[in-house]
Specification:
158 residues, 3 strands, 2 domains, three-stranded antiparallel beta sheet
Length: 158
Amino acid sequence: MSRSDLDVLNRKPITVSIGGREFKITPQARKQSRVWKARLFETLNSRGGMESVVASLGAVLGKDHASDPASLAGLASWVLWFAGTGGDEILDTIYDYDPATFTDDDRIFCDDNGSIDEFVAVLSVIVRLVYAPFGALVGAVGLKMGSQTEKPTVVAQE
């Protein structure tokens, strides 16, 4: 997602595809981006917080994990949440970034027709917009999950 300085200044929309339908996501102002980051943070922390997950994971991977059942329980709780509704709750935050783009009918269409790969690709675009200083890092680390054989969605600059 290479954008010129002029595109950034003009908040030029980025076209994404979900379920075969194109949507234009408009880069939001800092205030709306902060609201979205707070929503994402709230979602990620809804099951005891990422700090406890990281601490639990560290304890589980460390040599004393057998003596700390609370660490195992905390990690298991977060994994079960993520496997249940958590993953969807995180992906649903794409609707909150640019509410004008996704009407209620669009949300229903996306949920009925969009693949997980497409949602993850759109989330990746939004994360790179919101966390601009870390955009290259996000792409390098790999929020580009999905099928290795086919490109799940086309993300193009208008």
